[in-house]
Amino acid sequence: MTETRTSTPPGPVARIALIIPALNEEQALTQVLDEVPRALFAQILVVDNGSCDATATVARARGAQVVSEPQRGYGRACLAGLAALEPGVDAVVFMDADASDVPAEATRLLEPIRCGQAELVIGSRTGQAEPGALAWHQRWGNWLVVKLIRLLYGFAYTDLGPFRAIRRSSLEQLSLCDPDFGWTAEMQVKAIQCGLRVVEVPVSYRRRIGLSKISGTLTGTVRAGLKILWTIVRLRLMG
Fold it and tell me: Is the pTM here over 0.90, yes or no?
């Protein structure tokens, strides 16, 4: 595990919410929601990010709260989920809707927060990814991004994995605003800048169900990569 320290005293974590951004994920969402450890979460939100399939219908049928964010963008979907959180939620887990993450491993992400060891926990996929789950260009792009963060900010992440947990108070402190591909990088960079305690824990990563909207096409991969790199540099220039 890697970590950085802060002086902020940890508070109790009693109520946890799960936010699942989803765009045309009806194929995978049934499996994802069936695997979610329901007793762990006080609120389960699926953010329908402008789907043209039955994503919202599947989510409701599996007992999730559906939040509509028709303007597409991963960051917008996450922000819409945060806006719908109940007042008593203490921590938030973010997870993809494509069945690549293993929902039961959310307990692994939450443990450092519950024990007062971290405010932000990143699920690192690099050591436990199923063969073929991460394409070569994803691995290379991820390597480049974490190397740039280490160069500019002096913190050694191993992944920008989407499966992550964070205290709600820390989210408010970070004031995240990126509307699309830069969301995860913005969170991890601002966590360093704000002095949050950050921990990485190893998580599994499976072959996704369906085609990725980002890494599934060359155009999507290039656009996402450029935005992530620019986010990291821009936040450095802003100080």
Answer: yes
Q: Does residue 100 lie within any of the structural domains?
A: yes
Q: Residue 220: which domain range?
A: 16-237
pLDDT, tens digit, 9 for 90 and up, residues 121-164: 999 999 999 999 988 888 888 999 999 999 999 999 999 999 99
H/E stretch holding 110: helix 106-114
Q: Judge whether 4 lies within some domain.
A: no
Q: For the stretch 194-227, what's the b/e string if a residue is b when 16 or more beta carbons lie within 10 angstroms of its beta carbon?
A: eebbbbbbbbbbbebbeebbebeeeeebeebbeb
CA angle 121, 125, 130 (to 5 degrees): 150
The domain total for the chain is 1
143: CATH: 3.90.550.10
Is residue 63 one of the residues assigned to a domain?
yes
